Amino acid sequence: MPAIGYSLPAVHGTSLTAPPLPGASLLPPDVFHHLGQYSPWFPADADLPRYEVPQGCSVVFVSQLERHGSRYPTGGAFKDLSRTLRQVAKHLQRVPDAGPNHRHGQGLDSDLKWLRHWVDPKKKSDGGLRNRIGDSELVPFGQYEAYSSGRRFYERYADLFESEHVDINLDYAQHSNGKQEDIRFKSLLQAACPTQLNPSPPASYSSTLQLHHHVRQKICHYLGFAPSAAESRREKRPFVRASGGDRVVATSRFWLQGFKHSPHKPFQHAPPESAPWPPKGRPAVIGELKSGKPHRRIHNLPEPDVIIPEVRKIDDPAQPGSNNTLDVHTCSAFEHQHRDNAQSPASLKKDAFAKTATAEIRRRLARQLGKDHRGDRLHLKPQQVLQLFSLCAFDTVARLDPYGLLYDQPERNEGAVGPFCSLFKPDEFVSIYEVTTNMEKDYGFATHQPFHRALATPWLRELVARLERRAPVMSPPTSINTTLDEDPKTFPLPSETGPRAFVDFTHDNQLAPVIASLGLWGEEQSWKTSLTTPFSGRMTVEQLVCNATDYVRVLVNDAPANVSQGKWCPGAGYAPVAEGDQLCPLPSFLESLQWVDRADEWNKCDSEDLQHPIQEKSPL
User: Fold this and answer.
1) How much is the pTM?
2) Among 287, 311, 335, 488, which is most exposed with the fewest C-beta within 10 angstroms?
3) Alpha helices of 225-286 — where are they, by DSSP H?
4) How far apart are CA 295 and CA 69, in angstroms?
C-alpha cells in the first residue's frame, strides 16, 4: 500500500481551497497516522501531486463511499473505558505521589499526576459533565471533517453540476427575508422565464422569435432564476444516501453543507448531546451517561436524498434485520460466527498478539502507577492497554477546535493532543496498536475474512449497475433494499439531465469489505486500517472518458490504485494517457466484478461451517 503522508494536496479546477485539516505540527504523524480506525482523516499518500484529471480526459460519473467523521466512543467501548478508568481511580486513591522519600516505583510517577484529575470521582460545580467524553456522537471536529470532504468533492467535480452556486435544499439556501416585494419579484421571474434554461445559444437562429427566446434565457440565467428545488435539485448536487445511524446521517448533512459552501451559511457545529462542548481547557472526566440519546437535531442543514434504516437483529431479536447496502447485517453466517464473537479468528489473533506485545507496557504502567498502602500494584489487562491507546484518539478529536483550523487560529488548538497519548512511545503506536487494528479489520471484515465479498456484494451490485446505466440485479437476493432500488426516485441512474455523482455514507465495517473486495492491492501488500478506514475514510470510483474511450480510476483516501497491482484491472499493461497506471479500461474493471451479480458469494451467508478459503499469512 502507498506510503503515509500528511499534507493535503491542492484541489483541481478552482482558485478556492478546501477547509484545512490538521497538519503534522498539530497531530504528529508518528502517532495519529497509526491509530487504525480511530485515526483522524489524512490523505493516504501526500507525496502524490495534486489531484488532476489526466489531459484529454473528463470525469463523467463518480460514486463515493464514505465513513462518518470522528466521533466519541460507541456505547460498548464507552462502558469499557469507564470501568478501566474507575479501576485506575480506585487504585490512585490509595497511592501517594512519588516524592524524594519514596523509592522509585513506590508512588505515582510525576509524569502521570494529570491522571488524578482525569479519574477524580468527585463531582465538579457543573455536575462533572464539562469535558466528559461523550457517547457515539460526532465530535465537532468530526462534523468539520465531513464539511471539508463535501467542499473538496465540489471543487474536484464541479463540472458535473449545473452551476457554481448550487441549490441544496430550498430551506437551507433561501436567504430572503420574506418581504412581499421579494415574493412578487420571484413571481414575475417565474412567469417570464422558461422552465428549462439553456444558456448556450443554438447554432443558428431561424427567426427573430428564436433570438428573442435565447436573449430571454440569458437574462433569466443572469438573474439567477432556476426551476423549483424539487425540479432541479438532482441536477445540481450529488445523489446522497446515508445509513440510518445518527452519526452517519449527521455526517451526510455536514458533507452537503460543505458541498454547498454558501458564504451565507459558514460551518457551524452542532453541540453534542452527550457531552457539552467546547472543553474550555478543564480536565476531562469519563463518567456514567445515559445511553440511547438521539443526536441533537441539526437545524438549517441539507438532508440526504435517502436514509436507509438500520435494523439489526442483534439489537432487536424479534426483528429479522433490514436490507441495507450501507450497513449489511443480514448475512446470517457472518453475524453468528464472526461479528462481535470473542472466538472469531479476528478476536483470537488480536488477543494473542496483544497479550505478548503489551507485556512491557503493562509492566511499565504498573510501576508508574505506584503501590497502594498494602503494597499492591495495578496490573492492567492487554485489552485495557488497547483501550488507553484508543483514548489517545477519542480524547484528542474531542478536544480539537475546528474553528481554529477554519480561521487559521492555531492558538485555539494548543494542547489539543490528549494526555493519554503520552502513556506510550511513538514506536508503540506503530508496532503494537496499529498492528492490532490491522488484524481486527483484516480478519474481521476485509481481505482475510471469508465473508468479505458477501458483505460487499450489495453495494458493488449497485456500483456496477450505475456504471452500466441499468437497474441493479435483484435476484439472487442480497441485502439490497428492493423497494428503494426499484424506484428511480430513490435509486436514480446516471444521466445527462439527472445526477452524475453519487455519495453514500456508511460505517468502517462496511467500507472495509467493499475496498477489500475490489482487489486493489497485491497479496504481498498487507491491510492498513489507518490508510483505508480512518474516521471520514472514503473510496471514490471515477468513470472518465479519454479520447472517446471509457476508463475507471479508484482512489482510496485520495491515493489512486495502480492497474498493475491487485486484481481490479485484468489485462492491464497499456497506458493510453500520461496517468495510464491509474486508469483501467471500463470493460476490464467490469470484468473483475462479474462475480457480484452471481449468487456464489452471498450464498455463503447460509453456511454454518465455512472454512477460511484463503491461506493465512501474517499481516505484519
Assistant:
1) 0.83
2) 488
3) 229-236, 246-260
4) 14
The amino acid at 560: P
* 381-395 pLDDT, tens digit each: 999 999 999 999 999
Closest by CA to 285, choosing from 175, 422, 125, 157, is 125
Asked if residue 462 lies in contact with residue 597, where contact means CB atoms within 8 angstroms, the answer is no
195 alpha carbon, distance to own chain's centre: 38
What are phi and psi for residue 239, nearest 5 degrees? -85, 120
Cis? peptide before 450, omega within 30° of 0: no
Confidence of residue 281 (pLDDT cuts 50, 70, 90): low
Which cell is 352 given? 494473542
Nearby residues of 263 by Cβ (< 8 Å), 6 or more positions away:
none
Q: Where are the domains of the chain?
A: 168-225
In whole angstroms, what is the distance from residue 469 CA to residue 473 CA? Answer: 12
Taking the alpha carbons of 135, 136, 141, 147 in that order, is the dihedral positive or negative?
A: negative
Q: Are 57 and 546 in contact (CB under 8 A)?
A: yes
**Contact yes or no for 480/491 (Cβ under 8 A):** no
Backbone angles phi, psi at 108, to 5 degrees: -65, 125
Reduced to 3 states, what is the DSSP secondary structure of residue 58?
A: strand
- Determine how many CB atoms are found less than 10 A away from the CB of residue 229: 16
Sequence-ordered alpha helix ranges (H) in 322-451 = 332-337, 345-357, 359-368, 382-399, 402-406, 426-428, 434-444
Question: Would you say how long the chain is, in residues?
Answer: 620
One-letter identity of residue 442: D
- Tell me which amino acid residue 374 is: R
Separation between Cα atoms, residue 433 and residue 385, nearest integer Å: 9
**DSSP category for residue 138:** B
Q: Which amino acid is at 6?
A: Y
Q: What is the distance between the alpha carbons of residues 573 and 438, in angstroms, rounded to a whole number?
A: 31
Quote the pLDDT of residue 583: 95
Neighbours of 347 (CB within 10 A): 17
